[in-house]
Write a structure and sequence with these properties.
Length: 124
C-alpha cells in the first residue's frame, strides 16, 4: 500500500487509509468487532493493505464515531448505520444545492434573502 504522493499530501488527506483496525478501534473507544459490524452493514468499507489488513481514513473514523454515538444511546447497529448514511446523503445534497444556489446568484442558508421576483406588495 505505497503511494507516489508526497507524505504531506497523504497526512492532510481525510480519505487516506492511515489507521489500522486496532488503532481505529482504540481511537473510537470501541472494539474491532464494532468496526467489522459497521463494515458488514456497509456503513464504511475500509481499504485493505497489501497483506489484507483493514485500513481506515479519518473520514471513515468520523462516520464510525457517529454510528457509535447512536449505538451508545440504544439504537440497533443496523438502524444506526442507516441513519448515518441518510445524514451523510442529506449533508451532501445540501452542499450541492448550496453550490447551485451560489452559481445562480441566489442567497444561501444563513444569509438574508432579498425580495423574490414577483413577491413585492402592490396595492392595486
Amino acid at each position: 500500500m505505497t503511494s507516489d504522493r508526497p507524505l504531506n499530501d497523504r497526512l492532510d488527506d481525510d480519505d487516506y487509509p492511515a489507521y489500522t483496525m486496532g488503532r481505529a478501534a482504540e481511537m473510537l473507544g470501541t472494539t474491532p468487532g464494532f468496526l467489522r459490524a459497521i463494515g458488514e452493514a456497509r456503513l464504511i468499507t475500509p481499504l485493505r493493505s497489501e497483506g489484507g489488513h483493514r485500513r481506515y481514513s479519518r473520514y471513515q473514523l468520523r462516520i464510525a464515531a457517529r454510528a457509535r454515538e447512536l449505538v451508545d444511546k440504544g439504537t440497533p447497529i443496523d438502524a444506526a448505520c442507516r441513519i448515518v448514511i441518510l445524514e451523510d446523503q442529506l449533508e451532501e445534497a445540501q452542499r450541492i444545492n448550496a453550490e447551485y444556489r451560489r452559481a445562480a446568484g441566489e442567497p444561501t442558508a444563513g444569509s438574508t434573502p432579498g425580495p423574490r421576483p414577483g413577491s413585492g406588495s402592490s396595492s392595486g
